[in-house]
Amino acid sequence: MDHSAQQHAGRSHEKMREVLMHPDAPGPAIHYHMIRGGSGARNITVWQPGTVGAEYIKTYGHYHVGALDEVYWTLQGEGVAIIQKRAEGADGPIDDEIEDAYAVHVRPGDALYMPPGWGHLVVNVGPTFFVTADDSPVDFGESDGVSLPGHADYEPVRRMRGFAYYVVDEAGKPRLVPNPLYRRAPDIRIIAAADYPLKRES
Question: Are 70 and 83 in contact (CB under 8 A)?
Fold first, then answer.
């Protein structure tokens, strides 16, 4: 691998305030690090352990644009992925209405598919750094292709202050707390990766 082609970005606490359950709670300066592999190489994401308020450290979250899909492989640690699909209205997706959603507990060796049109974020629920690899494309020619790539739509997540569920620490275990800004979302529970039904079509 040509390591000179890799680029790094960190997601700051100031940026993450936009999507936190408790935006005024203190947190680490950088919540997670993104190492972008560029063309033909996987990306690596590394989460800090810990919580902000009671909420576990998470990624900002985004929706896929167009036909893009991707796979996340868990390399180290323990996480919960939230995957959600917005309802469709006459003018396109409805940000505050979630038609389908999953919360998936992942451990090393698990691979999780993120379908086109769905949104996803991943949370570190373990006591150590959490590390994943993914095959999402990155265009280093974009103005902010490493931190905010063009294939990902972050704006609906910012408007809703996060996803339909926050993942919080309750006595050392993850619990889902509904985001009150969503008008409709299915009742879900945390499932094992083996029970996650969405698969990439061959």
Answer: no
Backbone angles phi, psi at 130, to 5 degrees: -115, 130
3-state secondary structure of 202: coil
Q: Is residue 21 part of a domain?
A: yes
Closest CA to 123 of 21, 14, 6, 8: 21
The count of domains in the chain is 1
Specify the pTM.
0.89
Q: Phi and psi dihedrals of 172, rounded to 5? A: 85, 5
- For residue 54, the domain's CATH number is 2.60.120.10
Pair 14, 30: CB distance under 8 Å: no
Does residue 80 belong to any structural domain of this protein? yes
| Residue type at position 190 | I
Measure the CA–CA gap between 44 and 31, rounded to whole angstroms.
14
Element (H, E) at 44: strand 43-47
pLDDT digits (tens, 9 = 90+) for 77-118: 999 999 999 999 999 999 999 999 999 999 999 999 999 999
